């Protein structure tokens, strides 16, 4: 697995491997990038293409945005609260081999107003469920203000996240991408769950 990780980092001209717990706390989880084999499956899913805009929550050093942009030509925005790791993403942006380069924003996820053009959101359990509740409220607010179809992708979803998602009445479960076969042990959490905010005009009660 390490060889695959290093191969893609080298091919893309970036450095994203490794785990970093330096500034982790009860609300913000350690930096740990999504494995490239999972991203390969995500890129091949048909959900991403030119014209789509991905918002990567807890982007870390930017791996998701760099890979999807290079492979599918999507635009992406990564948001990160840890300034030191954010600086690593900016350094990677200078060296990445890709026609389309992600943008990065240093901010707290719960404070970030979701841009109207975003129609894909990606999560790898970046923060606590307390923050996640507020983030979901931001996404739904953006959807009401600018109705469009939005897909949300959750890799290795935490039980607390799933419980929260089931309480969002505007949200529908759409599909999942199995990833358990990519790793030893057949862990049932090795999957990407996909939820959808449907693309139709919403009626707001007076």
Descriptive labels:
seven-stranded mixed beta sheet; Rossmann fold; 206 residues; 6 helices; alpha/beta
- Given this structure, which CATH class is correct? Alpha Beta
The share of residues in extended strands comes to 15-25%
Helices and strands, in N-to-C order? Answer: HHEHEHEEHEHEE
Mean pLDDT across all amino acids: 93
Radius of gyration from the CA trace?
Answer: 16 Å
CATH superfamily: Vaccinia Virus protein VP39
The end-to-end distance, rounded to whole angstroms, is 54 Å
Structural class: alpha/beta
Main pleated sheet: 7 strands, mixed
What are the low-pLDDT stretches, counting only 5+ consecutive residues below 50? none
Total DSSP E strands: 7
Helix content: 25-40%
List the helices and strands and how they pair.
Elements: H1 2-12, H2 36-43, E1 53-57, H3 63-72, E2 75-80, H4 83-95, E3 103-106, E4 120-123, H5 129-145, E5 150-155, H6 159-165, E6 172-178, E7 191-197
Parallel strand pairs: 1-2, 1-4, 2-3, 4-5
Antiparallel strand pairs: 5-7, 6-7
Helix pairs in contact: 2-3, 5-6
Characterization of the model:
The chain is an alpha/beta fold and 206 residues long. It has helices at residues 2-12, 36-43, 63-72, 83-95, 129-145, 159-165; strands at residues 53-57, 75-80, 103-106, 120-123, 150-155, 172-178, 191-197. It has a single domain, classed as Vaccinia Virus protein VP39 (Rossmann fold, 3-Layer(aba) Sandwich). The chain is built from six helices and seven strands; from the N terminus they run ααβαβαββαβαββ. Strands 3-2-1-4-5-7-6 form a seven-stranded mixed β-sheet, covered by helices on one side. β1 (53-57), α3 and β2 form a beta-alpha-beta unit. α2 (36-43) runs parallel beside α3 (63-72). The model has no long low-confidence stretch (mean pLDDT 93).
